[in-house]
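Ticket #355: bound-state structure for zinc ion.
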Amino acid sequence: MSSTMKAVRLTAVGQPLQMQEIARPAVGPLEVLVQVAAAGICHSDAHYRAGVSPVHPLPLTLGHEVSGVVAEVGELTTGWQPGDRVCLHYLATCGQCDYCRRGAEQFCTSGQMIGKHRDGGYAQFIVAPAASLFPLPDEIPFEQGAVMMCSSATALHALRKGRLAAGESVAIFGVGGLGMSAIQLARALGALRVLAVDLDAGRLALAERLGALPVRAARTDSPSGDCQSCADEIHCLNAGRGVDVALDFVSVPATLRPAIASLAPFGRVVAVGLGDQPVPIYPYQELINREAEIIGCSDHLASEIPLLTELVRRGSLDLAPVVTEVIPLDAAAINAALDRLQRYGAGGVRTVIRV
Ligand SMILES: [Zn+2]
Ligand SMILES: [Zn+2]
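RESOLUTION: The complex was predicted; output attached.
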């Protein structure tokens, strides 16, 4: 094996990524070297390149949606063999801190995200803690194994934060990449009825094909959101009652207002989108009188990955329509994909680098 490798890296914020020939990373005792097979290009990566959210230290290899094959195993690591197919949990965590010990490792006090705080998967190899590796079954192509590790994992975490029980109803606000996974996962977890709310007719048509009842949202600039007509339509489509769980993948007033208004008694709203505007709430009518809950959702947990993998393996979550483009490990092709994300957003589709 050569001692160097190709990696496509962020060298300066606001500049195109560059292909560099760098040293193949050394493997620590509790780490594994993975030969990257596929790496998804995420909307977050466009934010990292643009400097919208900070990446350090530079230069850094981007890519947090990674699958591949074990190449080398650290001397104190057990359970992995060269050649094993794997996908990587994107948070490298310490396993020792208070949050890690109680199974909330997304708040690890020294956690590092691959492709943001440590080198990621836009490269021929990546080194990761052995605890970040999960087996990737033969039935799941590497491309799908990569994209599964970000938006799908977060969609599953959102449904779990909402404590969705079989027989309940779910409304999903914003059906881009996360929403498309959430529709299928909600059905796999036994949701009786799934409603998809979006402005875009094309996304709603895909949501309907995946088994959701489409609700066309009205575009509104009202800061309080045009909630009543949307909530009324949800009630109407949901047999005259509110929904038990509402997932908001946008989390701006125009989505969070109707999400709250559409709840049944004991309903739970899960806010996932990175909204930063204040949202008015009527405590008595909307929360107290229904014992409703508003829940935040951040990232996902390693413990959720085996369930997610099994649902993809069984075909309950079909990611084939999500992988819309496959490109080589090439800086120009990757920058072009990031340019498109920056201009148009993700829209439920993914470009995947096949290394
Ligand atoms: Zn991502
Ligand atoms: Zn920790």
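RESOLUTION NOTES: The chain has a mean pLDDT of 93.
TICKET STATUS: resolved
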